[in-house]
């Protein structure tokens, strides 16, 4: 599926805060440096212009309505070699236009969050219409983001990209869905590395329970956690673990979003 990303830069919803703490180790710090100071690498970029209001909803990372999730138009769909089967969802990249001096806007770059997957089209060659085919590193941007670095007539542009720290307003958000004893949690608005590699949940009557990844940044567990305040422990790809206690109150409900503290950015 090709992209459905979009819309507005801020989320105006007030969410309950929770207490949190960070667990750091020297090895985690080294990993963070590797993630956040990556070198510029070559890629290409195209854009899309959404015409259907439904394009603000969806995407292979599971963030749903990108306006409500706070990602706005600062988003990108990534080709297979960059998408890492969804592990990269939530990571942030700086992208700049290079080489095409007719079309590039000098001295500019755009920062985007990975929110979607640009599927390969094997009916075309990678150097033809198959822009997102392996081994291509390719970004598909909303036209609003593309036009910050290049003139729209450029179409398929050579660019450079690098992984950077994510900076987000507010805390990490936990959106609880499911039914009965099936609990699905969307983890979004993550600063620092941006992508989550492990998650645990704890009720007031349980120990820490590991959660499994469904897809993108949706995590799940089968456990009866109703009528218990919920705490979450999440680990980023930088090796940093953040524990947020009593994020959701005892009377939490499916379909609700709760907010914890935030990774350092």
UniProtKB/TrEMBL annotation:
Localization annotation = Secreted, Cell wall; Membrane
The topology of this chain with respect to the membrane is: Peripheral membrane protein
Residue ranges of every copy of the Expansin-like EG45 domain listed in the record: 58-171
Span of the signal peptide: 1-20
Q: Which InterPro entries match?
A: Expan_Lol_pI, Expansin, Expansin/allergen_DPBB_dom, Expansin_CBD, Expansin_CBD_sf, RlpA-like_DPBB, RlpA-like_sf
What is the first-listed, main subcellular location in coarse terms? secreted
Pfam families membership: DPBB_1 (PF03330), Expansin_C (PF01357)
Residues annotated as domain Expansin-like CBD: 181-260
Q: What does this protein do?
A: Causes loosening and extension of plant cell walls by disrupting non-covalent bonding between cellulose microfibrils and matrix glucans. No enzymatic activity has been found.
Q: Which family does it belong to?
A: Belongs to the expansin family. Expansin A subfamily.
Q: What is this protein called?
A: Expansin
Q: Which organism is it from?
A: Datura stramonium (Jimsonweed)
Lineage, broadest ranks: Eukaryota, Viridiplantae, Streptophyta, Embryophyta, Tracheophyta
